[in-house]
Amino acid sequence: MTFATTDLCDDHPDLLEEGRMAVLPPLFRHYGQHLRFCGSVTTLKVFEDNALVRATLEAPGNGNVLVIDGGASLRRALVGGQLALLAQNNGWSGIVVDGCVRDSEEINACAIGVRALGTHPQKSSKLGAGERNVRICVGGVAVQPGDWLYADADGIVVAQRKLA
Asked: How much is the pTM?
């Protein structure tokens, strides 16, 4: 996995201009052992409920990145140490949460990349509300299932096709 988000932006100004590639705003903090990760996107839209997050991470990840539109809630965590370990063990490349995580020390021990707005100690509800593989909006950027996400120390890029 050799890429730099800066190079992707420099090499594809046409995609940025046309809106086929976008950079998420610099709101996300890094967790997990992998600072750099990429993969095809699987999407979830949930709000303070992580039952669908667990169900999704229980399936083989095949190197994909799970992008969760959590409504930017800072009131509950959507991913914790157990789910990060599940993602690692099931072959997910990374997780991006438009919301919070918890058990950050446990997540940091996992061989996976995780980005989130911050941490919150309260767990989410488990009702199963939400939608999977739908168009979502994260940080004002539209993300669709099958897009490609690239994350490194400089930021997060989402493109409508594989770039690297």
From this structure: 0.97
